[in-house]
Design brief:
Mean pLDDT of chain A: 84
Strand content of chain B: under 5%
Largest sheet of chain B: 4 strands, mixed
Shape of chain A: globular
Radius of gyration of chain B: 37 Å
Distance between the termini of chain B: 79 Å
Shape of chain B: extended
Radius of gyration of chain A: 24 Å
Oligomer: heterodimer
Mean pLDDT of chain B: 74
Number of helices of chain A: 14
Largest interface: A-B, 44 and 52 residues
Strand content of chain A: 15-25%
Number of strands of chain A: 15
Helix content of chain B: 55-70%
């Protein structure tokens, strides 16, 4: 599929992104209190051919609260889930509706609320050439600045939100690409710096080799599981690849027929294929898979939850949480999902979907709120509410269909080449992953 | 010579290790049994035990214990006599055995696996054991105990000695454990053993099936699923007709997943490589001294002993030799020899291909006769040169000895020469003479390949050197062309020395061909990019060129030539109608190729292992992980496969372009029929080069060749060539397409999905293309034939798919007609005519399949209702 990222390529990419970051940085003592500061961190990401090969960058939102209670929305809880499902008109599943009613969600911050310890990450695909990476990094910053400008200047007309953002993304990408080709990236970076100072959105940009620490990876695992559980397209893609990798091994060789049959029978009888399937799924969804064979592999084989992973020894043996302390598992196998530069721990391949899924959840809530208010009596007739009833559901549907397209686009078609996964790929009752959050929502950025 | 020495060394080393291990184990055993544990003071006992443990560790390691330190073992051994017995592998009584089972629940750490495996090994198949296992499983509360998996594992051994009611109760208990849901994150030691136990019980007691059946009715989907997987294994183990159990268990209740998915479970296919097996018995290595050395040694010893005899006879006052060999006697000897030799060469040339004749006409007898005749001439010439009598008499004796030597060799030579004109003997002789060279060539080739891996790895970290296949280069670049045809193996150290010197004016060296690949003479292999400031001097470019050496192809070329010579002999024999001889010659070229491959891979593997370990050590020392070559590095690197090179050689010779058509088709076919083409690369290439038939007459030849290629690719488990074959059939075949497609598809039906599905698809598209013009019975006959072979070989997935296909095409109502006597009879006779793998009575196979299809059809209908 794709070229593996070599050390040289990784070094060169890291160097150039660090340079771009320092070229864009405008934070200094003189900027304090004069506008808002966005803490941005460039990092690398490898999609290794699992996702769309054209995905050159995406943004990764910082986690705010894994178990937040959202403010109540009037009339929502009084409506039955079945009624809500009906009102959603096919845009939400029962689980989504129930999660919205329960007002429990994991929250993520938008770029404006990023902090030094919780930066807004712009992930650049390390599988691309350095030139493409430069354009991707700069155009993402350009489009981010453009969006902030739209919001700040109150120029945003919600009715044309999709068109506006699409236009913005396209023009910033083209503009950056052309200017980069004509004048070099330093010129473009300088321009963006000027723009950020002019509009009062100060950029505090840096580059970091490993995108996430072990703790962050562990914290994000329930979010990634939610993405896997809630999006059938993603689930099908992961399961196909898992099935191809874990269950397709056959017994081949040149022994006598009886021996071969006996061997394939043993593989069938022991549950090794199923353990491997779970292992591969952990790797794709949570970023790390750990299969511990224990002292006696015949009885001790088990998986270790990816959240428990603290690091690896130089020999590659995983160090995991054990009660309050930690222990090394010398007889465990560890594989990482998307490799990080400068860290042996992997990152989930599903990171790019976090933004899509959290936005989707927001628009479903807006859609439901508008429609519930429309059929409920006793809703005050103030202009905001009227707008929410008349205007927002339509925009929500437009956005939702855009997001659905975007999800398929990010996923790409690579996994379609694999056969459908068998029904008994995982252990009985383990088709969905747990523990997962019930919903992901943007923090403090609701329908109103 | 080196061969025999290394073999001998290996044998000696192995034997020594064996003996040492045995002795060590015995000493350790004695130590463990003795009263070491009661020895006071303790430190002495400790040292003795440690000594014993050290001796024991290698033996215990066969249980795949890794990371156990002797001190840990000592600590464990000291726990008690049972521990000692297990470690020293000494027999214990049945009572003690059940005490030892209790050890499983102790914290044994990494030695747990030893206890587990040892107990399983020493379990006796008696009624006493059976009652013990039964009591433990039925009466004790074993939750959380490590004994549970062990006891479940015992059931396989005692299932047959159990009374029936016990078996029934145990089945109930084990089924319950087997059906417990598994959380992969929590250790569930018993589940897979419980599943195993259920299978063993059901295999031993077929009438217990009824007991498990209620789960099919009442269980959840997951439970039913598990039961299906159990029953598919039970069917396999009982050697029951699979179709029957499938119809019994799966077909009526295809609740979860489709019928097809269930059928896949019940299909147990012979793994593909088992029949298309590449490994053949390696020829026994014999101690073999090269023949020229033997001749030299022989003649030298003759000469020396003759001289000694001469000196002795002179001293003792014996008479001078009765015959004096003068020049007039010596020359006719030589003339006689030349005549015999020329005559025999002419004779073999008439009957054998030139290459083989030349080699086989050169036995050791020829060399020794020539050597003695030629040595005789100077001896005869020197007859009167000597001043001293001693020397003269010795010389005369020596001449007589040589003459005798000559006479003996020529007497031996004539029958040999006559015999080697016999083609089979000649081929064997040729093979024997060449196999060593082929092995050496393989070794050199393997070395070269591993060298290429190293070069690739070094090039990655070397600045200024880049290996990029078919990369672009600037117009200022100096191009380096290959000076001859061969393998490209650059010497990077000298190149990098030049590159690191900035005054040389070289910015970068781009190697444009994969290292280790074959390049033609004059082909551009690299580009020297000059630095922006200055151009490199001509001498610098020349030095770089000389570092990019192209190794001659001769090492593998020779093997290819040998194979071709033997193959063409095989063709020739077949042309002359000597089929038996042709068949005995046919395996030789492939054996030669195999020897080459084998020794190449052995050397390659060894070298790569060395490189990996050296790289690792280097990485540890320098702290730079890039230093270490990993196995994955090796997999990623482009090193041309020996099959490619040899396939190329054999093919270009066997199927030379100027006569690539009917003649080449015939040749390739014969080669194939004689059992050649064991390498699928060559096979694939053969499929690729084949052109369509010119006229109607050559169609038959072409057809049978394509079918033969298809069959061979099935045997080799090579799906790429298989698809290629199907493509050929689709492209060129006309009226014979249907029967050939059916023939190939029915062969494929005994194989993996990746083989039968494309074939079935092709038949479907054929049926679709022919449309209304064909008779229904013919269409169904095709499906029926493929289905019947599938069913016969146990490929239920394929059989069910075909049954559903027949149903979907609207022929489902025909099943009763199809099972009719008339139809089955015609199908059967046709199958026999075509030589399909349907057994002695194809009619039965057809009837079985249609009945099976009928039941699947009925099951489908029942589910639909």
């Amino acid at each position: 599929m794709l070229e593996t990222v070599t050390q040289e390529h990784a070094d060169a990419s890291a160097r150039i992104l660090a340079e771009i970051a320092s070229g864009l940085k405008v934070v200094g003592p003189d900027t304090v209190g004069r506008g808002e500061t966005m803490v941005i961190r460039f990092s690398h990401f490898q999609h290794d051919g699992f996702l769309n090969p054209l995905l050159s960058s995406f943004s990764s939102l910082p986690l705010a609260n894994i178990d937040a209670t959202l403010p109540e929305i009037p009339h929502l809880r009084q409506t039955t889930p079945e009624k809500l499902l009906e009102l959603a008109g096919g845009w939400a599943a029962l689980d989504d509706v129930e999660a919205i009613r329960s007002r429990k969600a994991a929250t993520v911050y938008d770029p404006k609320r990023s902090k030094e310890e919780q930066p807004f990450r712009i992930m650049i695909s390390a599988n691309d050439s350095v030139e493409t990476q430069i354009v991707a990094a700069l155009s993402t910053v350009a489009s981010l600045l453009g969006r902030q400008n739209l919001i700040r200047a109150d120029q945003l007309d919600v009715t044309s939100l999709t068109d506006e953002t699409n236009r913005l993304d396209l023009t910033s990408h083209r503009g950056v690409k052309d200017a980069n080709r004509a004048f070099g990236w330093k010129f473009v970076a300088d321009q963006l710096r000027q723009q950020s100072i002019a509009q009062g959105t100060f950029l505090n940009i840096s580059y970091s080799g490993p995108a996430y620490s072990a703790k962050e990876i562990a914290e994000r695992a329930p979010l990634m599981r939610y993405i896997y559980n809630s999006r059938p397209e993603v689930r099908s893609a992961v399961d196909r690849v898992v099935a191809a990798m874990a269950t397709n091994f056959r017994v081949t060789g040149s022994a006598a027929v009886e021996v071969m049959q006996r061997a394939s029978e043993t593989v069938e009888r022991t549950l090794i294929r199923k353990y491997l399937a779970h292992f591969m799924r952990d790797l794709f969804v949570c970023g790390n898979g750990i299969l511990d064979y224990g002292d006696n592999p015949l009885t001790d084989i088990r998986l270790v939850r990816p959240e428990d992973l603290l690091g690896l020894t130089p020999e590659g043996a995983p160090i995991v949480i054990d009660g309050d302390g930690s222990k090394t598992l010398p007889k465990a196998m560890h594989l990482s999902g998307s490799d990080q530069i400068g860290s042996p721990l992997g990152v989930s391949y599903l990171e790019p979907f976090l933004e899509i899924v959290s936005e989707r959840s927001m628009w479903i809530e807006i859609l439901l709120t508008g429609r519930v208010w429309a059929i409920r009596n006793g809703v005050p007739g103030i202009p905001e509410v009227r707008r929410a009833i008349d205007l927002y559901p339509e925009i929500a549907i437009e956005r939702l269909s855009h997001l659905r397209g975007r999800l398929v686009e990010v996923l790409g078609t690579v996994s379609d080449t694999f056969a459908d996964p068998p029904k008994d790929l995982y252990f009985p009752g383990q088709a969905m992953m747990s523990p997962a959050v019930k919903r992901i929502q943007l923090a403090g950025d609701g329908a109103r | 010579m080196t061969d025999s020495i290394s073999v001998a060394m290996l044998v000696i080393r192995r034997a020594t290790t064996r003996i040492l291990t045995a002795v060590a184990t015995e000493i350790a055993r004695l130590l463990m049994k003795s009263k070491v544990f009661r020895i006071r003071p303790r430190p002495v006992a400790k040292i003795l035990v440690l000594f014993g443990a050290k001796l024991l560790l290698p033996r215990i390691r066969s249980f795949n214990l890794s990371g156990v330190r002797p001190s840990e073992l000592v600590e464990w051994i000291e726990r008690g006599p049972l521990h000692r017995s297990i470690a020293a592998d000494t027999p214990i009584s049945e009572d003690e055995f059940w005490h030892a089972v209790e050890l499983l629940d102790e914290p044994n750490g990494p030695l747990q696996i030893l206890v587990f495996a040892w107990l399983r090994q020493h379990l006796s198949e008696t009624a006493f054991t059976a009652s013990k296992v039964r009591d433990a499983l039925l009466k004790q509360d074993l939750r959380g105990s490590e004994k549970l998996p062990f006891l479940l594992a015992c059931i396989g051994k005692i299932a047959l000695v159990l009374p029936r009611e016990d078996a029934s109760r145990l089945l109930k208990r084990t089924l319950l454990i087997a059906l417990t849901p598994v959380d992969p994150y929590i250790r569930t030691p018993a589940t897979s053993f419980a599943k195993d136990a259920v299978i063993e019980l059901l295999v031993a007691w077929p009438d217990l099936d009824e007991q498990a059946l209620p789960v099919f009715e009442s269980g959840t989907n997951d439970e039913q699923d598990l039961l299906h997987s159990i029953f598919s294994l039970v069917t396999q183990r009982r050697k029951e007709p699979r179709a029957q159990s499938f119809v019994k268990f799966a077909a009526p209740k295809p609740l979860q997943g489709s019928l097809l998915q269930q059928a896949k479970r019940y299909s147990w296919l012979v793994p593909a490589a088992a029949t298309g097996d590449l490994s053949r018995p390696d020829r026994v290595l014999r101690l073999k001294v090269p023949s020229w050395l033997m001749i030299l040694l022989g003649i030298a010893s003759v000469l020396i002993s003759a001289l000694a005899l001469g000196i002795l006879s002179f001293i003792l006052g014996w008479v001078t030799p009765p015959v004096v060999v003068g020049i007039s006697q010596a020359v006719p000897f030589l003339a006689l020899l030349v005549t015999v030799n020329v005559f025999s060469i002419t004779l073999s040339n008439n009957r054998l291909p030139g290459g083989i004749a030349r080699v086989t006409a050169q036995g050791w007898q020829v060399w020794s006769s020539y050597a003695s005749a030629l040595l005789l001439i100077p001896l005869a010439l020197m007859d009167n040169v000597y001043r001293s009598d001693e020397l003269q008499i010795s010389q005369r004796w020596a001449a007589i000895a040589l003459m005798l030597c000559f006479a003996v060799s020529i007497v031996l030579l004539i029958p040999t020469l006559l015999r080697t004109t016999d083609p089979t003997v000649a081929a064997e002789t040729y093979f024997r003479r060449r196999v060593g060279q082929s092995r050496r060539a393989g070794r050199r080739f393997g070395l070269m390949q591993s060298e290429c891996v190293r070069i690739n790895h070094v090039a990655e970290s070397e600045t200024g050197i880049r290996i990029e296949v078919d990369a672009g280069y600037s117009d200022r670049a100096a191009l380096i062309r290959a000076t001859r045809r061969g393998f490209i193996v650059p010497r990077l150290t000298s190149a990098s020395k030049i590159l690191s010197d900035p005054t040389q004016g070289v910015r970068e060296l781009v190697i444009l061909k994969p290292v280790g690949s074959v390049v033609n003479s004059g082909e551009v292999i690299a580009a020297v990019e000059p630095s922006p400031e200055r151009m490199p001097k001509a001498s610098t470019v020349r030095r770089i060129r000389s570092s990019l050496q192209v190794r001659p192809l001769a090492i593998v070329d020779r093997v290819g030539r040998d194979c071709t010579a033997l193959a063409s002999l095989c063709f020739k024999l077949e042309d002359e109608g000597d089929i038996t001889a042709a068949f005995s010659v046919a395996p030789l070229p492939t054996d030669l190729l195999y020897t080459f491959h084998h020794s190449a891979s052995v050397v390659r593997r060894r070298r790569i292992r060395d490189l990996v370990s050296v790289g690792r050590a280097l990485a540890r020392e320098t702290g730079d992980p890039r230093q270490s070559i990993t196995e994955s590095d090796f997999a990623r690197m482009p090193v041309s496969h020996p099959g490619q090179v040899l396939g190329d050689l054999v093919l270009t010779k066997a199927l030379s372009p100027k006569e690539r058509s009917d003649r080449s088709t015939q040749m390739a076919k014969r080669y194939l029929q004689c059992g050649g083409f064991f390498d699928s690369t060559i096979l694939y290439a053969a499929g690729k080069v084949l052109r369509g038939p010119k006229d109607k007459d050559s169609l038959d030849d072409f057809t049978s060749l394509v079918v033969a290629i298809g069959r061979r690719s099935l045997e080799l488990g090579d799906s790429v060539t298989w698809v290629e074959t199907l493509r050929l059939i689709e492209k060129y075949f006309d009226e014979s397409r249907r029967s050939e497609t059916v023939r190939l598809a029915s062969w494929a039906a005994t194989r993996d999905t990746k083989f039968w599905r494309p074939a079935l698809k092709q038949y479907m598209s054929l049926v679709g293309a022919l449309g209304e013009s064909q008779e229904v019975e013919i269409v169904v006959w095709g499906y029926g034939t493929i289905g019947a072979t599938a069913l016969r070989s146990g490929n239920l997935e394929c059989a069910v798919e075909i049954a559903e296909l027949i149903d979907a095409s609207g022929y489902g109502n025909l099943f009763s007609v199809l099972q009719g006597k008339e139809f089955v009879k015609t199908s059967g006779s046709r199958a026999r005519q075509m030589g399909l793998p349907l057994g002695e009575w194809p009619e039965d196979a057809y009837i079985d399949f249609y009945a099976f299809a009928q039941s699947v059809y009925d099951a489908d209908k029942a589910v639909a209702v």
